[in-house]
Amino acid sequence: MNDKNNKELVMEFQRIRNVKPQFFSHEGIYDAEIKAGIPVRLGFIGLWTCCDKHGRFEWKPRQLKLKALPYDEIDFNKVLEALVETDSVRKYEVDGKQYGYIPSWRKHQYISPKELKVKSQYPAPPGVVDLPEATSETDLENVSSMDEIGDEQMKPGRVGTGTVPEPGQAVSIGIGVGNGKGKECVAIGVGNVGSKAAEGVKRTV
C-alpha cells in the first residue's frame, strides 16, 4: 500500500477529537486506571479517535490498540473492560458482530459539518434510532439543547462570531437558506424578548 492510501486509511478511521479539562479530574476513570494498573485514561482518549460521528466503534481490541496505544505492552481488552465498569463505554451486538459506543459522546464532542455528512460505519445499538441525515447535517445533533453546550454556552466562536446573550434576551435557532445561494445554514439570533433579533450569525453547512 502506498503512502497516499495509508494516509487515506488513517483519515477514514481516526479523527481529531475534543478533550475537555474536566476529563482529567474524572474520579471514576482515575480509580478504574489505578485498579486495572494500565493507562485507561490515555486509552480512552485514543479510543475517541477511532469512533464514528455517533461515538461508535467496532469491538476489536487488538486493532484498537494499534491505533490508540501502539507502543504500550498491554491488553487493550482490559482497557475496554475498565471503561465498561465505569459506564464510560457500552458494548452491544448486531448481526453477530460486536460493537461499542460512548453514551456521553454528544455531550462532549463537536462533530464538523463535513463529518456529519458521512454515513455512519457502524449500526446503532438495539433500541436506538439515528436522527435523519438531513437533521444531522445542520450540526444541531451535537447542540440539541443549551445545557449540552456547557461552559462554552453561546460564546463567540462556538457557532460563529455571535454575541453572548444578556439577561432578558431571547435566543432563537432556525434552519433556512442563506445568501440566496441555496445552501442550508444554521441561523442564531440574539435580541430583546418580544422583539426581532438585533444581531445574528449564520453558518453555512
Explain this structure.
It is globular, with a radius of gyration of 20 Å. The protein has 205 residues and is an alpha+beta fold. It is 31% helix and 19% strand. A three-stranded antiparallel sheet has the order 1-3-2, with no helix packed on it. A three-stranded antiparallel sheet has the order 4-5-6, with no helix packed on it.
Keyword list:
single chain; 205 residues; alpha+beta; 3-stranded antiparallel sheet; 9 helices; 6 strands; 31% helix; globular
Question: How would you summarize the topology of this molecule?
Answer:
Blueprint (H helix, E strand, L loop, with lengths): L2 H11 L13 H10 L3 H9 L7 E3 L2 H8 L7 H10 L4 E5 L2 E5 L3 H4 L4 H4 L16 H4 L9 H4 L19 E10 L4 E10 L6 E6 L1
Antiparallel strand pairs: 1-3, 2-3, 4-5, 5-6
The mean pLDDT is 72
Backbone structural class? alpha+beta
Order of strands, main sheet, comes to 1-3-2
Major sheet attributes: 3 strands, antiparallel
Counting DSSP E segments of at least 2 residues, the number of strands comes to 6
Q: Count every helix, treating DSSP H or I runs of 4 or more residues as helices.
A: 9
Query: Separation of termini?
Result: 34 Å
The portion of residues assigned to helices is 25-40%
In brief:
The protein has 205 residues and is of the alpha+beta class. Helix content is 31%, strand content 19%. The chain has helices at 3-13, 27-36, 40-48, 61-68, 76-85, 105-108, 113-116, 133-136, 146-149, and strands at residues 56-58, 90-94, 97-101, 169-178, 183-192, 199-204.
